[in-house]
Fold these 3 entries.
Entry 1:
Amino acid sequence: MSFRESVLQKIKIDDLAGKVLASIGPPGSEKKVNKAAMRELLEIYGYHYKKERDLDLYLFTDGSGKDTVLVLDNELALYRTTLQDVAMRKSPTVKEMVSIRNAIKILKDTDVVVSRRDETVRAIQKACIEALDFHYEEEDIEALGRDGAAALENGYADGVVEILRLFEEILGYEPLPKPFTIPHCRMTGAPGRKTSRELVYRPVVMYNMMYNKIRLVDHAVGVRDIGQIETLHAIAKGEMDAAVEGPAVFKKLTSLFLRSATTNGGIYRIKST
């Protein structure tokens, strides 16, 4: 995969994991886990579907003799054992239950269960991400900036949003809280804290999808500062000027990443020459 493809894949992985985690209810609840999203997450890593008895299983084999098996139900239990052992423990026949040894296994699975529920989802998410290559060259980042500017100038909103998502991912930007939101406007920023521990964002990027206008505010905006929030709304609506506007926003984002890349210590690493 190219750098761009790897980052897009990470975004997809995180989105899928988020959907599954949001669908997990408290133990014993009747809330149904998002199986479609979990299936897609498992398939990304290389798990293969297997129907065994009445169980929906996903199997990953690494050649060690023991499989990693996930039972696709509300518990999302991840087993480190054989497929046949999981089938016997989760859906035993009468003949199998007669055996005392098997009965103990059925009643107690802590010897083979690696994780359950949210821990399983996060483990699969982590494994999927670790399989990706996030090394890049400066040209990879500069190409993102050029493509974002071109999409903006051509009025291609989906293209602008895709490039923004890529920059938001590699820069660690987050969606702004609900008080900041405006209809048809994408608003994200780099989170930080004041000495008072108030949450602030700097810079803030605003993309008005209805009017295809993008703006960047380069000063700290606190979540409790009503005046700053109103100012941000005015800028987003085009009623006030921003520090950076139009295609220049993508040049700014490119510069911000390349300038910080040597010190941020994250997963995105420049290729060594």
Entry 2:
Amino acid sequence: MATTVISYIVFDNTSRSPLGQVKMAGVTSESYGVPNRRVLGFYALVYVTGGKGYFRDENGFSCELQPGDALLLFPEIGHSYGPLKNEVWDETWVVFEGEVFDLWRQGGLFKPEQPLHHLEPVEHWHKRITSAVWTQPKSGASFALERVCRFQQLLADIFLQEHQLEDEKTAWFSQATALLETSVDTSPHFADLAARLDMSYESFRKRFTKEAGMSPGQYFIQQRMKRACELLVAQKVTIKEVSLELGFFDEFHFSKQFKKVMGMTPKEFCRLFR
């Protein structure tokens, strides 16, 4: 059976700043994790640097873990985690508490329902975590405050990276909607649009529908009718002129689709809003 090896980098239960405290931190190799339910009286950050494992908590959250995954554990929430069978488990961990971290939680930056985060590259974030809590062998409130401030900066960087990644994940959707909204006067080729976004048409259709709550075709029609309403009200052009400007075959086809979307004919719309 493998032997758990723990290398402490910080162990300080005495020095406390007015904001809070980084109580303890370490690097654990070949760990058994926490196979039985555990409830902490403080916060903990656990960063997986090797092996695959599992995590579950009493809120019903469960997931598999891999290198690069980070768990943010909360006080009074029971949990367990550890390696899968035949896996070697390595982790870097930090224990912390205090008023400033409670404020992070109250402000929604710490969310008990979202304990899992992912940070890559692993070596980079392992060094970031250890350097954030590493101090020379000194004690006192000033050094404790310095450590708390560095650790807060680490947490801020973690959340900023996650938001940046989330923005990148949805950038394609912003580009897709912009292209559809600027092509309301033509009939778009969705396969070509998907190719511009480096996706297959099927993947694009599914992802767009999930993000927008409607298919790309439905979204395009909606934007087309929105533009029709703007033209009819603001510019007071004729229905025939609007149908031609928006690329319809004739006024009849335009009126038919307008009524289907808006629930009234273009003539009825003009009587109401002109």
Entry 3:
Amino acid sequence: MKNTLSSPNKYIVFNTTNKTLVEKLHSSVFAFIFSKINGWEFRINDTEGIRLVEYYTSKVNWWSSDWKEIDGVNGRLNLLNIDDNDIEILNKVTFNSTYKDCNIVHLYSGSDLLNYLNIDDLPSLNEVFLTLFNIEDEFYDNFISIYEKLIMEPHLIMNVDDLSHNESKKLITSKIKEGKKIFLSGGESKLVREIKTKFPRYQFKSITTDTIKFDDVDVIEKLQVLSMVYQIHLMVKSHNLVICNRKIDKFIKDLHIGYNKIQYEESKELYEFN
């Protein structure tokens, strides 16, 4: 993706209306790439649900509200349900011609936007994500202390929330018996207690909050949100993962280059990243 110089006072404002935290982060990456391709400044208008600016910071000023101070022409581009009629507008020449009189274009789009962008040299989506979303300074040291413990002694990070209690216990037990150090993302407190009871000398690490729901748009309790933020970043930064969670697997797959799909217990799909 070639870096196009941003046009002064030209803003693509991505609107995160009614999205979960994972959906906001996932779709923001592609909205940012779309903005860069067209040479417009990128901003996020985030007024509902979990507010990204409370948990993330960035050198990219997506959090700035400077666009609200511009007395100019506003446009709107809804790509939430892209069809053949929308594809042409994604062409750089067509987009800039269509919105040539606008200072601000309000963009509504989802995580499928990337499928329709014609990009010769796609950047690393992992790097784009980590450029856009750094954990806020207030929480960063705590996150790093967790992360460093997992890389000093390499751990297999597992999020298997789509498996039943017994399926999860069986899979985790098999990985422990293979000699792997496990960090469990998500999961029930009961499951963690049972694993620790079964392997009392094994240092089993986890972040568990039984009420955490990656598909909940109304989560506002700070500890729950921080738990999600930490878990997402651990999965994004790690290259040693096992995931069985339909709420997050597409997001994690898009941000990692290599993974294997494994059929588990006939009806469940696991993704192994390495």
